Structure formats: structure tokens, C-alpha cells
Amino acid sequence: MNTTFGRQLKHHRTHSTTADGRPLTQAKLAEALYVSVDTVSNWERDITQIQHKDRELLVQLLGVLIIGGGIQARVEADGLLSIGGYSALDDAEVTTIASHWLTTDSEGSANDENSSMNSNQGAIFTQINGDYVAGDKTAHQISGDYIEGDKQTTVNHTNIYIQRPGIVGSFLWLFGHLGLRSNDPHTDHTFAGKFIFAFSKIFDYAQEHFSYVFAVFVLWGFAAFFMDDLLLWQAHPDQLLRICLDFALAGVLVPIVIGLVTIADDQHTFDTSSKDAIHTMKTLKVTGALSGFVGILGFLYLVSIAATMLGYSFSITTWRLMLWGPVILSVIGAKRIPVDRQKMFAEMRLHEADRLFFFVCLFFSSLLAAITYFLYDQLTNPIFGGIFILAFGVLAIAQSYKRAHR
User: Fold this and answer.
1) pLDDT tens for the 406 residues of the chain, in order
2) CA angle 256, 261, 265 (to 5 degrees)
3) Between 20 and 30 A from 221 (CA), which of 9, 85, 140, 338?
4) What does residue 134 show for φ and ψ, rounded to 5 degrees?
């Protein structure tokens, strides 16, 4: 069986441990990198791959595996990069994540190795009162073993698999998923700097692609106008059918149009010389747009039920603003999925799961509309509505647990 980037990544992860000696799960790796568990799972199954422009994320991934012991030599790190089609680590990157690899004195003492490792950690973390801080993540210092060749030295490992920060971390995680990782050095270390950098990128993009941004605003307005009534749960019985039909129609048309008008990442590099290739690319963009849209839409639907059960009602303006979530994730999906498939297969080709995703996501909003129409009174009942939300929650947790322990 040919070795792929995903299989090799999984090999290094399963041979890594956290600071407390536990296996490095997909969930812990995702937490350390500020990505979702699904993202790590897709990497390991070769469904998606880190983009070349996200070099900083790739280096951070190697850093986690090095600290966890899954990668113990530079040749292993460069081997993983080579399998994925990436360039080898340069000395500046090695200095950031494993400066001890640059040590030329092979006969140095154990104390020299300790100093090298500690200086390496100093390149990643800032020490504060015995702890290390990397961005918004606090990492506690513990003892461990570092092995290189036939030499074993006790050094200080650092556990970076710590809790995700609150609102600030969530914003930074979102910026990362919007492709805003490669910040200017002057804005890289503060939230305010990242915030300013992110919005400057957004405004620059809006100026360069005004017609596209305008189209996205129009599509958001369409979604907000036709979908907010259902989320309010204040429909008159005579209007319920019309409201459900509007919701179902908007939930299909908006992501499809977004998929068709969005230019995928690196689309200029795709081979679109044949009609089949063009059709496949459009199908992938629409599939990505649908999956991004319905994922957040399903969450908002459950929030609307919970709010109604608790006797709380969001304003219509609030719901319309929250519907930006599905629209933004739809744009991201349309931009990312085609280039992921291009990197995976070296050509524009559908993954075996893409057709299933397409049809499930295509009818998802219609399913929600049908559930609402036939179970409207029951869903607003605290007992039945609570069971409905609990069932979806248990299903989501079970799927996350399954992926995290693969």
C-alpha cells in the first residue's frame, strides 16, 4: 500500500503523547492547532490537505508532533512534508520548532542538549512564572524524555494541548479558517493586531472583487428575508406552509448560487480543458457551498427551538445577522473543496463521499422545513422539543467521539 500524507500523519500522531503521557488524539491535536476535529480527521483520511499557503499551520503541526515524540528527527519531518508535496523545512522554521536539530556538536553533553531543547521551547513559548504561554494557550512544564538516535536525555517537555480560550480564541480560530494565518509580523502577537489585519484583508478583497461581494450581500439578503420567519417560531397557522416553503427554497437556492459564482482557491491552476472537468469543478464548489451552509443552518435551527422552549425570542434583526453564518461558511466551502480534491487526486475528481454529501445537503433545508410543518406544535413543547434537541446533541457528540478516537 502506497504511503500517503494522511497515513503518515496518523502514524506520527498515534506515536505521540500529551504531557500527561496519554495518546495524542485527533481532538487534542485539533485543539492545539485551533482547527476542528473533522479537519484533522479529513487530513488523516486524505480527504483534504493543508494548503501550501498555510505554511505556518503546517509548521505548527510538525511542532506538536515533535513535542509529543511522534517525530524525533529532521529527516522524519522532511519525509512527511515530501509525501505531502511540500518543501522541506528551512533552518528558520527548524529554529522555531526544534532548534536542537541544528546543533552540530554531536558529542555535546547532556546539559548542552538540555540547553538546546530549552532554547527551542523558548522560541515557541514565553515563560511566565514557571508556565509557558503560546498566544492564548497556557502550557504547563513537566518532565519527560527526549530520544535522538541512541542518546536519551531527560528534558522539559511542554504540554500545549490545553483548553481553547474563550471569545478571543474563537475569533482567532475563525480568522485562521478564513485564510488569515500569515499575518504581518507587527500584528502577529496581539488580538488587536490580528483583528485589524483581518479586516484590512477583508476590505482589500472587497475592493478587488466588488461584484462578487455585492452578490454575496444580495444572497444574504435573500436568505434573511425568506428564512427568518421560520426561525422566529411565531407563524400563524394559515401562513405556516408558505413560511416552510420559503425556508426550503432559500436553503437550496442560496448555497447553489454561491457555489456557482464563487472562484475556488487556486482555480487558475485547474485543468478545465474538458467539459467533464468543468462540470466536476462546479459540482465540487456547489457541494462545498451546500455543506457549509446547512451545517450552520442546522445549528441555528436547534438554537431557535431552544430559545422558544425557554420563552426567549430573538429579534428579527438578530436572526438576519446570524444568517451571515451559513452564508460565510458556504463561501468558504465553495472555495476550499475543489482545491482539496485537486491536491488529493492531482486532477479534478469527485471523492466517493461527495455525491452523498451533495444530495444530503441539497435536501437538508427541505427536511427541516417538513419537520417544522408537521411537528410545529410539538417542537415548541418543552418536553418534545427538549428530546429533539437532546437526540441531535447525542448524535453529534457520538460522531465527534468516534472521529476523535480513530
Assistant:
1) 568 898 999 999 999 998 888 889 988 898 888 888 888 888 998 888 898 888 989 999 999 999 989 999 999 999 999 998 899 999 888 888 888 888 643 434 444 444 444 434 333 333 333 333 333 333 333 333 333 333 333 333 333 333 334 444 454 445 444 444 434 443 444 555 555 655 666 666 666 778 888 999 999 999 999 999 999 888 888 899 999 999 999 999 999 999 999 998 888 888 878 888 899 999 999 999 999 999 899 999 999 988 888 888 888 999 999 999 999 999 999 999 998 888 888 888 888 888 888 999 999 999 999 999 998 888 877 788 778 778 777 776 776 666 556 5
2) 105
3) 338
4) -120, 100
**Residue 109: other Cβ atoms inside 10 A:** 10
Query: What residues contact 155, with CB distance under 8 A and at least 6 apart?
Result: 113, 114, 117, 118, 143, 144, 145, 146
Residues 6+ apart with CB under 8 A from 187: 193, 194, 196, 197
Best CA proximity match to 334, nearest among 382, 277, 390, 291: 291
pTM of the model: 0.53
Q: What angle do CA 170, 311, 242 make, to 5 degrees?
A: 90
Q: Which residue type occupies 294?
A: V
**Amino acid in the structure at residue 361:** C
Are the CB atoms for 97 and 120 separated by under 8 Å?
A: yes
Instruction: Provide φ and ψ at 184, rounded to 5°.
Output: -60, 140
Residue 178, classed as helix, strand or coil, is coil
For 22, 295, 316, 354, 383, the CA distances from 255, given in Å and listed in that order, are 41, 12, 21, 16, 33
Cα separations in angstroms, 23 against 13, 140, 405: 8, 17, 10
Cell output for 379: 417542537
Determine the Cα–Cα distance for residues 129 and 116; give it in Å rounded to an integer: 21
Amino acid identity of 363? F
